[in-house]
Amino acid sequence: MPLIDLRGVSRVYGATEAPVHALVDVYLRVDPGEFLAIIGPSGGGKTTLLSIIGALDTPTSGEYLLDGVAVPREEGRELAALRAGTFGYIFQSFHLLDQRPASDSVELGMLYQGVGAKERAARAAEATEHIGMRDRLGTRAALLSGGQRQRLAIARAIASRAPVLLADEPTGNLDSATGARVMAELTRLHRQGVTVIVVTHDAEVAAAASRVVRITDGRLTEERRQAIEPSTRTGPTAQAASAPARRRRVRFGDLLADALASLRSRTRQSLALAGTVALAVALLVTTLGLDASTRAQVTSTFDAHASREVSVQWEPEDAASGAPAPVEAVTAASTLAGVESAAVVSGYLESAISNGSTARTGQVHEAAGDLASALRAELRWARDDGAGLPRAGEALVGASLADQLELGPLIARPQIAIAGTPFTVVGIIDTSNRAPLLAGGVVLGDGQAPAELTAQNRTLFIRTGAGAALQVGRQLPVALDPYSPDAYVVQAPTDPTTLRAEVQSGVRVALLAFTGLAAMIAVLTLINAIGSAITARRAELGLRRALGARRADLIGLVVAESAILGAAGGVLGLAAGFAGILGFTVANRWLPVFDVALAPLAIVAGVAIGALASIVGAVRASRVHPAEALRQ
Ligand code: ADP
Ligand code: MG
User: Fold this and answer.
1) Dihedral pair phi/psi, residue 424, rounded to 5°
2) 46 lines ligand 1 (CB under 6 A)
3) Which ligand is nearest to the CA of 44?
4) Around Cβ 554, how many Cβ atoms within 10 Å?
5) Ligand 1: which of 48, 93, 538, 631 to mutate, most ligand atoms within 8 Å of CB?
6) Full set of structural domains in the chain with CATH
7) Is residue 85 scored above 80 in pLDDT?
8) pLDDT tens column, 193-245
9) Of 165, 212, 203, 204, residue with least CA distance to 181
10) Residue 448 burial (CB count, 10 A)
11) How far apart, in Å, are the Cα atoms of 426 and each of 342, 385, 388?
12) Do 102 and 140 touch, CB atoms closer than 8 A?
């Protein structure tokens, strides 16, 4: 059975208006172990024929059986496996990884065969030994001469240990000595049982072949069949050629190493891309970091001023209820941790208040506890014995009521009558921050209100130490009345965190939106840059495909490259972001707060931006057509 069997194969390039018939109804059979030369004029269709034989391209019509099995027409696992395992290619224009060490080019095919790193290196060394290139494995491929590059391309094919070797004008660019050496190598491989198909202009090369076909204007003619010593061994033959697609996989470590080497071969471009990611990550870190610093700042400011006040209101006790008397409430409150001062103000209905000649209405209060401190009130006393509360028969009068009643100087001990009961005014309430209504009323000592008045409500005002208000507010109802704590309405300050959220949310949303925008711009820039990189790398990607890379392998490569760039950008951005936070907080004389969680977040964000941006490019890379890409 022939190894290669082309039956009426045609290949038409281009649009239907101007088709190029590169192959016309070609019948060709090649037996295992043959050494076939394809000759013909330039543009005759030699490269096209070789591409179809090597499963890099598919016929427009006709059939291709490899070892009796139809070669699939669709890209996929089987084609990739054929390229990786069955065919070894020597391309007309070498196709090396120019900016990477020569060894990378030799090992690339083995990478997609799933060969481990150690064996790859060993086989690369062995293959280059044969063609005198072993000492050049460490050299950057771009620095090698044309002849050396050609030999390297041959070494790659040898190292792949493919049973079928396809060479497109392997001596075309070489001086005669190097050409002879290359031919000797092809002959040696043929003797070992490898099926060799070589395209050539060179009569000497054709002379080495066991059989010659000519292709002109896409039509194939048999030129000569010669009984040169045929391959004695069947070698790695038909069996291997059509072996079912072995499950092979590029190892993850190899993928990463390949991606890293690929990035390093394009240093400047890689740095620019990492810089783009860094910018977005730096903005993210700065935004979130400043958020933490601001929170700390707002909380401490807030604690210093407002979060020290709490009050409780309840209905005055009736006979049945367990509500505490004002003095008891003050005592109960004072036992709680964090309480600095407490006072109860009981409110009565408005009642007539007169100075003997003028009568006004004003609200009557009774107070217990430390009135001045707990209410943050300013009191002006007629006496200076420091008493905090009016005693029996005494009253404090709110500043505005005092004006209306034209009380005159305190020193004169003005008298007033509340609901007919006389009181001596012993002080004026100038301001009362927490109970402004006191300015229009009077405050008496506890239990001093005239009997006909009834208490309407009681309010316990408390001042606490910094930050204790919330906690005290939670404990108060139970402390006052364990049996019916629900009857007590606590007014505690807003949670500083909530307040911060309220104060900051506007700014924060704007900053986050800004960061999101920056991330989006970074992603778009990256998509663009990766896109042009993919265009520039078409030949390299085509080479990888030709050597057996699956679509998923190329997607993996491009995504891995981008993710690595993203991680690097994340680290750079993290450093820049911290510097930004430091600069901003120091400039504002704040204490900088660095959230440790930002470090992994920054790197994850970088990787995510990189990977996300690479998807479009990765899919494009995976669609590169090997034969087309390699023609360039
Ligand atoms: P050879 O290798 O013998 O020089 P090729 O196989 O490269 O010939 O090309 C055969 C013909 O097909 C030529 O006329 C060439 O211009 C044409 N051709 C090759 N590739 C393409 C392509 N991708 N699109 C259009 N025409 C092509
Ligand atoms: Mg050609």
Assistant:
1) -95, 130
2) yes
3) 1
4) 21
5) 48
6) 4-248 (3.40.50.300), 264-301+499-631 (no CATH), 324-480 (no CATH)
7) yes
8) 999 999 998 888 888 899 999 999 999 998 777 655 544 555 444 444 444 44
9) 204
10) 20
11) 22, 11, 11
12) yes
> Do residues 26 and 53 lie in contact, with contact meaning Cβ atoms separated by under 8 Å?
no
pLDDT (average), residues 264-270: 92
DSSP code, position 139: S
Take residue 93 and report the two structure tokens written for it.
Answer: 């224009």
Atom 14 in ligand 1: which residue has the minimum CA distance?
43
Mutate to test the pocket of ligand 1, among 9, 23, 47 (most ligand atoms within 8 A of CB): 47
Which amino acid, 516?
A: G
Look up tokens 């663009």; give the residue: 528
User: How many angstroms is it from 111 CA to the middle of ligand 1?
Assistant: 30
| pLDDT tens column, 47-56 | 999 999 999 9
pLDDT at 118: 93
Among protein residues, the one with the nearest Cα to ligand 1's atom 25 is 13
222 Cβ contact partners less than 8 Å away, ≥ 6 residues apart: 213
* Amino acid, res. 366: E
Beta carbon of 41 within 6 Å of any ligand 1 atom: no
Closest C-alpha to ligand 1, atom 24: 13
Pocket of ligand 1 contains residue 349 by CB under 6 Å: no
**First CA to last CA across the chain, in angstroms?**
36
DSSP string, 222-285: EEEE------SS--S-HHHHT---------HHHHHHHHHHHHHTTHHHHHHHHHHHHHHHHHHH
- For the Cβ of 584 lying below 6 angstroms from any atom of ligand 1, the answer is no
User: Which ligand sits nearest to residue 215's alpha carbon?
Assistant: 1
What atom in ligand 1 is closest to the CA of residue 215? 3
Query: From the CB of residue 402, how many other CB atoms can be counted at a distance below 10 Å?
Result: 25
